[in-house]
Amino acid sequence: MASVIDPRARIGAVHLTISSLDDSIRFYQAHLGFVMHRREERTAWLGAGGADLLVLSACERAPRARGTTGLYHFAVLVPTRADLARAFMRLVETDTLMQGAADHGVSEALYLADVDGNGIEIYRDRPRGEWPFVNGQLRMGADPIDFDDLASAASPSGAGLARETVIGHVHLHVSRLDEAQRFYVDVLGFELMQRYGPSALFVSAGGYHHHIGLNTWAGVGAPPAPPGAIGLRHFDVMLSDESARSAVEERLRAADVPIERTDEGPLVRDPAKNAILLRL
Questions:
Q1: Measured by CB atoms within 10 angstroms of the end CB, which terminus of the chain is less buried, N or C?
Q2: How far apart (Å, rounded) are the C-alpha atoms in residues 154 and 89?
Q3: Residue 155: its pLDDT value, please?
Q4: Closest by alpha carbon to 81, among 146, 18, 30?
Q5: What domains lie within the chain, and their CATH numbers?
Q6: For residue range 67-94, what is the model confidence (pLDDT) as tens digits?
Q7: pTM above 0.85, yes or no
Q8: Residue 160 burial (C-beta neighbours within 10 Å; 0-12, 13-18, 19+)
């Protein structure tokens, strides 16, 4: 039985509970350039022209929770620096409030939130050969971005997100970091890429800088959000074939992790009750 997750594993769609479908669709289309693929009465599927990247499910009475586990942010990965520059200019032109920006060495990133406060990162990767390693260990930093230099890279072509845009990673609030590491590394099989002090760590498949970030910044021992709250419903981990998914399921069973069967694949919850759907 393989102990490491499929190296081609990646993050698929992120599924969110939001308060107003109309308001959220307007935000994601106007401010970020998403395309709506389809819509039902209370759910919308958005992307960049290819696969679904974001699934929004509306509940006007959904509670808003603070100090809980759940989504810290989901990260929209654009293919080039010109695409990131165009996304930055779009945020400026639509008077979107940015919460921060950083050059992480492996990437350049912009941070904001949607109308319900769900955290969003928009970023572009640097080539792997430029990633900073110290004594063989990845060292992501948080240096400032030169916004004038970034803006100068903007391409005038294309109004929305590039078709090759994907969800690059998700970053989660968890209750205890050691429990999260055991689940994501020892059970699911992701590789530990970097620790960030005593309160955060980053894991990945196939040597990527991170597919999942985990932190205790909502408080050590933070409880899960109440059922149906604004925020993360689940996120998809995409595996390349059935044998790769079966290997993960075997490790889950060996660790006595409950597996919920759905039409789209097995769904599991980490120790902080964040939900992951294993898809092909």
A1: N
A2: 8
A3: 74
A4: 146
A5: 10-279 (3.10.180.10)
A6: 999 999 999 999 999 999 999 999 999 9
A7: yes
A8: middle
